[in-house]
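Appendix B, Record 12. Input sequence as logged:
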Amino acid sequence: MANIHRVKQWVMSRSTGLISREPEVIKGSGCLLKIPEMLAAAGHERVLVATTPGFIKRKTLEPFFEALESAGIEATVFSDVVPDPTIECVEQVATAYVLGNCQAVVAIGGGSVIDCAKAAAARVVRPEKQIRDMKGLLKIHTKLPDFYAVPTTAGTGSEATAASVVTDTVDGLHYKYSLNDTCLIPKYAVLDPELLVALPPANTAATGMDALTHAVEAYTNKYPSALVKEKALDAVKLIYDNLPVAFEDGKNIEAREKMLQASYEAGVAFTNNFVGYVHAIAHGIGALYGIAHGQANAIILPYVMEQFGKKAHKPLAELAKAAGVDGNDDSELAAAFIESMRKMNKLFGIPEKIEKLKEEDFDILIDRAIAEANYTYPVPVIWGRADFRKLLFKLKGN
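Logged structural output:
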């Protein structure tokens, strides 16, 4: 069975690299205000702006809305996107787009906002398909309206990825799953560091560790291309150099800008070589217990990399060097890099264990992780149920 998985994973990895693309990147302080003139130049007169209540309440986006008005662009604003967007929320955003006769989408927020807006745009262009019908790989096959992704956290990389993660409810249980199609890659990634200066330290840390997880999983997976290696290595260096700075001083524009770049590059890396068991377990844990995705990833990451053993030592050693971690050989470097992740978690106040984790939920979490990962993610070592159970016992608090 493992050999069959490997063949499928190799085909998927190579195919993704051939059909993937990158957004056009707009970056720098205040670059959000370039969007209205870009919309006007494209001939758009009506746009959907998806965001969260906080941005409206704080009036952070007032200059942007004024610029839209000056450019003659009418905005339909949906500001009720919830964390871990539900199917209902996606449908509400899609309805707002249709009722507003919109021609483009601007998603301003964290990964939840961008993912929700992506899924909504997919519903707009494929109205005959429900979200559940788009679950998995390459089920959309239709170009989205012009899509401007404006991240207000540096972590999910959704501004660069072909994925949209949504939360569904089946038989009373919450599920997180992904829609994955290259048409979900935004046309534009707008990286404005000024939108991050008010992000609290805890959110800065969790989303930054999410970006680190993307880079590490894409790099340690089998079959990374030269592009994947370049982006992942650069992302890891940027994160180690700048995440502690951004955590301590949220108003440090340079650190914020570099973390946005790191998140983007990590997003490109995993778009081209997938994530792995960290995400497969984190999705289940996040859905069942309401734990923030970045925090779940941060806790799980060192345990998974450690449990991969020697198969992951070489790529982890290469990542260690990019992070500025020392060691005499691959084994020492890998161990030191894993320990450095734990030290960062401790610095950021991220716990070592998942206290909410219940043994009676292990089988559900294992079923979901295997279904998500084993056919697609080219992890260093393919795990069976016993391996996942071993990991979950390590993660479980006393």
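The mean pLDDT is 94.
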